[in-house]
Fold this protein.
Amino acid sequence: MEPLIGFAATTLVLRLLGRVRFARFNAWRPSMRGGLSVMFAMTGVVHFVPGYRESMVAMVPPVLPWPEALVAATGVLELAGAVGLWVGPFRRAAAVCLALLMLAMFPANIYATLNGIEFNGDSPEPLWIRTLIEVVWIGAAIAVATEPARPTEPAHDRDVDEEDESARKEAEPIG
């Protein structure tokens, strides 16, 4: 539940900041990008924390080989995706890859729930709750992947530059 709280709190704080000060976050998609980034940073780090790591290894269905390596790899991918969400040329690809990663990892959540595997001593969430949370995250990743590109130069700055250019031309001597 902590990743959901981190996602929701970060998204809401960034959206609020967008309304009062930082225009870049004055829309839901950029704010959700921040929320996803925080959530994936949290979950990615946990892949390497003793206690949590062992719980994640136990969640890997037995049909998959090398559960320790899979947990490490998915942790690295989550951390890379959290960073990639902020790197302009990789933003969309990172969001799409994170959505696909969540789909690929969801069977481990199903396996853990159906087999009563505890997560660092906590009982697994009911499958319907886990599924709803997953739908929220995948939906947010898709929304971020379809976020319109920001102009490289704010509209206000373009207007000022055009006014400066026209004033300069008016002041030039003719001839």
